[in-house]
Amino acid sequence: MSMNEIHEKHWAEFMTDAHHRTLYDSWWTSSSVGYWRQTRLYAAVFEVLGGLKDFSWLTVGDGAGYDAWRLLQAGYREVLATDLDDAVLAETKAAGLIQNISIENAESLSFADDSFDFILCKEALHHMSRPYAAIYEMFRVARYGVVVIEPQDPWVDYPCRVDQSQPHYESVGNYVYQYSTRELEKIAYGLNIRGIATKKMMDVYTTGCEFAMCNDGDPIWESTRTRTEQLTTAMHAGEVVASYVQAVFFKSTVTVELFDLLAQQNPEWRFLRTDTNPYLNGSSAF
């Protein structure tokens, strides 16, 4: 069975598993610790691109449609959710949580060039066998930018691990690709696009956080929040490597003026111009 077939089977059977069904039902509770964790991960959209809610969005690798739901809930008006299998997407749509869905292989999207203004790919690239093919497909289909949120490679970017790296695999059949600020910046430089904004973050998963509420005194909430604050402080001090890297790629269709304005408005983010190839006269691959 191929990796894509395993992935499709996972989502096709997802709702028939009692544990998965319980998890699914918990995802839509906005007062939960799990929801709070996810909000922090969406900072690339909510912070950097929070003023662009009238633009069209595509979510890629959005198995249950949760990414699309969060965008719609935040006021982004036009969102299409996609994944290799639509079994769970269809249920989320039937519940009225999302509006538009489509079956798509991220490594070979069916859309024409520049079909959507922005694309969001959150925690999906590391499941793919050819993630870079998916990245270039998203650049092709996006008119202005691509948002990527992925686990940080602990063996790249300071302070990186120095022990021998080991491959990690998941039960849905994939080798876990992990990313770094450096790697994402190289992609932007290679394409000579307008630029990239990146930010590292720490995330803490506590068992049961999907069902715990963000109430003072709740042990899961207190533990998750405290540990997150401690690790974030250590990350900024250079003592531990980040657990996630968030990035917004800006194509050359984004004006220099807008890029500079967003950089000014988001001082906690690293904005980097990557349209610097002196031999291309400002042209880019996309």
TrEMBL record:
Transmembrane segments: none annotated. Pfam families: Methyltransf_11 (PF08241). SUPFAM superfamilies: S-adenosyl-L-methionine-dependent methyltransferases (SSF53335). GO terms for molecular function: S-adenosylmethionine-dependent methyltransferase activity. It comes from the Bacteria. Residues 58-146 form the Methyltransferase type domain. Gene3D superfamilies: Vaccinia Virus protein VP39. PANTHER family: 2-METHOXY-6-POLYPRENYL-1,4-BENZOQUINOL METHYLASE, MITOCHONDRIAL, METHYLTRANSFERASE. This is Methyltransferase type 11 domain-containing protein. It comes from Iodobacter fluviatilis. The lineage of its organism: Bacteria, Pseudomonadati, Pseudomonadota, Betaproteobacteria, Neisseriales.
